[in-house]
Amino acid sequence: MWPLATRLGLRSWLGWRRGFTSKADPQGSGRVTAEVIEHLERLALVDFGSQEAVARLEKAIAFADRLRAVDTDGVEPMESVLEDRCLYLRSDSVVEGNCAEELLQNAHQVVEEYFVAPPGNISLPKQDEQEPFSDN
Amino acid sequence: MAAPMLRWWCLGRRWLLACIDGGSRHGRGAAIGFTSSRKRGQTSVAQQPLITSQKSRKGEHEWAAVVGLEIHAQISSNSKLFSGSRVHFAAPPNSLVSFFDASLPGTLPVLNRRCVEAAVMTGLALNCCINKKSLFDRKHYFYADLPAGYQITQQRLPIAVNGSLAYSVCVGKKPSRVITKTVRIKQIQLEQDSGKSLHDELRSQTLIDLNRAGVGLLEVVLEPDMSCGEEAATAVRELQLILQALGTSRANMAEGQLRVDANVSVHHPGEPLGVRTEVKNLNSAKFLAKAIDSEIERQIHELENGREILNETRSFDYKLGCTMPMRDKEGKQDYRFMPEPNLPPLLLYDTESLPPGADPQQVINIDWIREQLPELPSETRERLIQQYGILPEHSFALLNEVGLLEFFQNVIKETRAEPKKVTSWVLNIFLGFLKQQNLAVNESPVTPSALAELLNLLDRKAISSTAAKQVFEELWRSEGKTPSQIVSEKQLELMQDQEALEQACHTVMEGHPQVVMDVKRGNPRAINKLIGLVRKATLSRADPTAIKEILERKLSP
């Protein structure tokens, strides 16, 4: 099933996104449009595959929506469960690296110590023609 | 405060002409007028050049361009922002990559103290407000050179905000007036660099080198307060000089340590801002201004022909000299920003708020960093003007070349000659020779001591200035000889023998009675002829002023 973090992440992301697009889902309706599914699939490279999966997603959103029952007026949102921890500062010395061989063992294809990737980004099927992204 | 100079050129550019004080127009509507634009608190002169297109014969159609910049500067540090692998420009592929940089599961980011200090120092130098608490976020997008699928950056609450950068525009000819312009800095944030991709078109694949992945970057966002390519280029140059003076970044564009993206739009003054495009791949100072200007031209051209500007990303094609669309974004790119769950907020302190008994390695004191700030380029220029009485444009030129200021100061130390003389020799003759042979200051065959000695000879009037130039040429060509040696070898000393000089003058006067008559009749130019003749007779070894004095004495009744 969907791990909690993903559900919450998705819920917060959708809520955040609602603030952006005019074609947002109506508040609390729980229906996720095909357009949103397509957008999600492209962004997160998940595959919803079937209508069942979409239904599961909608249930997960509804479950997380129950957070709204809590009154959070005047409460500072928590940024991170680590917010009371001290951020450790490392001193600027070189202690890692020099393990090209080890790293390259993970690669499917290697050319002279370079990782090999397909040219640019490959567009997902059932999209319109899309130019491959050139160098960022 | 003096700041770098920018010359506005009245060149053949059809729409960019510098005319101050009234905006004189000539040609067919290709002119510029100046109007005061929106207020900018920090400049006394808030002006924006207007651009009139060539096509307007009917009515003057004025356009104003708006340019904002996003500058990425690689932090000069030994190790990367969140890992302990080395930061170095050239190394075998993937040899400077740690497990974290390669995004292997189970690795976590650990913040590099030096990078935070660099960010704070840069923020202070740019008059920013340093946020005592800043947060890290993830910016998600898929690309092969970003192994994690996200970049750790500071989107919500960056480390520094609301600063300013001052640069100078030099207008008019002699005397040239200096206008200081300011561009506001929206924010400075810490973020990770991505790896490098090499595109192999032939085999339809991309080769990935992660040496650069994870290197610390300072992203400096400049508000759209600039109005043309030249202003943008000058602002970037000044930022480069500041970063180099602070030591926070080597800011070498050729090595990719400084990368600039521009946001460009055009509009009619008084109307709302137009649609902006983003111009990327501006990796050379030379082409920065050109790319921005060509994009402005393109936008004006499109709009005047009734077309619309798309909100897209374009890159500058050096060979074609214009911008080309880079990638089509299906709508706006959605980066799905989220807080970085593995990093607590970054807390900075000042002397007041420093917790007692804290481990000094683990806390950063903003006040302490402020005290360590070195002299900034604008302060250096001002100091040079005050100390040596040189012109602002010379002050700028001295700072504009690596090592030139040090060379200049070393010469000044060892010579009695006036600073103005030294400046003239260093900036015109010395720099001229360097540029001719494409050498850096530290590759110069002439040492500061040698030049100082030469200038001393000149100052003592032991040689004439023509002779001095000859000596300099010889110094350049043959190493190891001192100026005095060259002078005696080539017999370039000025004639010190007063009697012999008097004799020479006498001989010339005897030999050219007609010219003498001209002088006596009051022809002011005739005496120059006599001086020339005496110089020739003495093989250019006599000081012209001395000759003139003797002749005048002899010729007076």
From TrEMBL, chain A:
Belongs to the GatC family. This is Glutamyl-tRNA(Gln) amidotransferase subunit C, mitochondrial. GO terms for cellular component: glutamyl-tRNA(Gln) amidotransferase complex; mitochondrion. It comes from the Eukaryota. Its EC number is 6.3.5.-. Allows the formation of correctly charged Gln-tRNA(Gln) through the transamidation of misacylated Glu-tRNA(Gln) in the mitochondria. The reaction takes place in the presence of glutamine and ATP through an activated gamma-phospho-Glu-tRNA(Gln). NCBIfam families: gatC. It is found in: Mitochondrion. Subunit of the heterotrimeric GatCAB amidotransferase (AdT) complex, composed of A (QRSL1), B (GATB) and C (GATC) subunits. InterPro entries: Asp/Glu-ADT_sf_sub_c (IPR036113), GatC (IPR003837). One of its GO terms (molecular function) is glutaminyl-tRNA synthase (glutamine-hydrolyzing) activity. Keywords: ATP-binding, Ligase, Mitochondrion, Nucleotide-binding, Protein biosynthesis. One of its GO terms (biological process) is mitochondrial translation. The keyword tRNA-binding does not apply. It comes from Mustela putorius furo. It is an enzyme of class 6 (ligase). It catalyses: L-glutamyl-tRNA(Gln) + L-glutamine + ATP + H2O = L-glutaminyl-tRNA(Gln) + L-glutamate + ADP + phosphate + H(+). The keyword ATP-binding applies.
UniProtKB/TrEMBL annotation, chain B:
Its EC number is 6.3.5.-. It is an enzyme of class 6 (ligase). InterPro entries: Asn/Gln-tRNA_amidoTrfase_suB/E (IPR017959), Asn/Gln-tRNA_Trfase_suB/E_cat (IPR006075), Asn/Gln_amidotransferase (IPR018027), Asn/Gln_tRNA_amidoTrase-B-like (IPR003789), GatB (IPR004413), GatB_Yqey_C_2 (IPR023168), Gln-tRNA_amidoTrfase_suB_CS (IPR017958), Gln_synth/guanido_kin_cat_dom (IPR014746). GO terms for molecular function: ATP binding; glutaminyl-tRNA synthase (glutamine-hydrolyzing) activity. Gene3D superfamilies: 1.10.10.410. Its main location: mitochondrion. Subunit of the heterotrimeric GatCAB amidotransferase (AdT) complex, composed of A (QRSL1), B (GATB) and C (GATC) subunits. Allows the formation of correctly charged Gln-tRNA(Gln) through the transamidation of misacylated Glu-tRNA(Gln) in the mitochondria. The reaction takes place in the presence of glutamine and ATP through an activated gamma-phospho-Glu-tRNA(Gln). NCBIfam families: gatB, PRK05477.1-2, PRK05477.1-4. HAMAP family: GatB (MF_00121). This is Glutamyl-tRNA(Gln) amidotransferase subunit B, mitochondrial.
